[in-house]
Automatic annotation (TrEMBL):
It is found in: Cytoplasm. The gene is tyrS. HAMAP family: Tyr_tRNA_synth_type1 (MF_02006). Keywords: Aminoacyl-tRNA synthetase, ATP-binding, Cytoplasm, Ligase, Nucleotide-binding, Protein biosynthesis, RNA-binding. This is Tyrosine--tRNA ligase. Catalyzes the attachment of tyrosine to tRNA(Tyr) in a two-step reaction: tyrosine is first activated by ATP to form Tyr-AMP and then transferred to the acceptor end of tRNA(Tyr). Gene3D superfamilies: HUPs, RNA-binding S4 domain, Tyrosyl-Transfer RNA Synthetase. PROSITE patterns: AA_TRNA_LIGASE_I (PS00178), S4 (PS50889).
Amino acid sequence: MTTVSDASTSSPVNPVLATQSNDPSFANIWQELKWRGLVHVSTDEQALEELLAGDPVTYYCGFDPTAPSLHLGNLVQILVLRRLQLAGHRPLGLVGGSTGLIGDPKETAERVLNPKERVNEWVGYLRGQIERFLSFDGDNAARMVNNLDWTAPMSALDFLREVGKYYRVGTMIKKETVAKRLNSDEGISYTEFSYQVLQGMDFLNLYREHGCILQTGGSDQWGNLTSGTDLIRKVEGVAAHAIGTPLITNADGTKFGKSEGNAIWLDPKLCSPYTFYQFWLNTSDEDVVARLKVFTFLHRDRIEELAAKVEAEPFRREAQKTLAWEVTSLVHGEDATQKVVDASAAIFGGGDLAGIDESTLASATAELPTAAPGLGAAGPVGIVDLLVATKLATSNSDARRTVGDGGASVNNIKVSDVEATFGPDQALHGRYLLVRRGKKKMAMVDLQR
């Protein structure tokens, strides 16, 4: 199997990196991380603050390839990597080619093991995503590493003798997720039980090879994070550190980063820029300030200004619009974000639709009502049939009245002739008809569907 090594990056440079900076109003990066709500649990706080305020240190965060894309929970960790890099420290982005073959234990059930070839493919996908958020230039240039590179050559006997002997089963079974699984009907396999040992070995290897002394991750990974710090202390006699970020939840207690049961992925093929932008735009007033702190590089004075506007003028939703622009630009680029904004204005504001590219148009109108397949199979479709087929009108007579009263439009052009017909020549991209009744009722017809 071909693995991804820690060679220099070949991914395109993200121009947004050049605009990012930490907030100079804080005494140090530790204070900024605390203010942004990014520290839920950690090793010695005072030692960490002194460490991060001093000379550059090497630190890492790991990402397992359990899917072909990272999601918003992973983005929290990536941005912590970037904030520490902006403070002068040296990041290692680890993609788990070996740990991804096993899977971090879930609280509910055993993971399904993915084929090795698929995991290796996903390693490449995740590496490319992570690289876009880090700088690979300068004295504190980032490096990418793959734990399969040092795990694969090791025999089972070497693993047990050189690493396993430092672990005590009594301590391992007290880890929160392991304890829950042991008390469940499902139980836990030795494979998943060993995950924390592998992650600890990663930290030890990175300490030896790169002088890495800090690991970051989600607070739900705390047992795995401290597995590494404990191992380094036992083997090398060195105090390594860990930071666990809080799990992000919404103000109502629901899980953050889910949209109708689906994760918000960073890959535009799995979650379009339009859907991504709308997710952030729909952030509640109760959550938007916290999201600005975690997911943007806006400084404290600007976030406090937006917080005041949430209180004084919530109907303007300036904080949500700013959040949506900042995060979508960060992940998908400013050009893609501007296309999304323009598409929303054209569709919901009645502007010119002709300039919207096909993929953005399809994403922006995906949730609109439509007609049954085959409506345009027999040739151009009349306006009356369009209104009835999309249920914007209850009957032919209702549709005719709507047209006669000036309440019907197709692709934002008012239709006044009840005999008007529409085919590919009048359709957007040769196939789409945005049918509207009044200002708010809309449907999208795909003539090729």
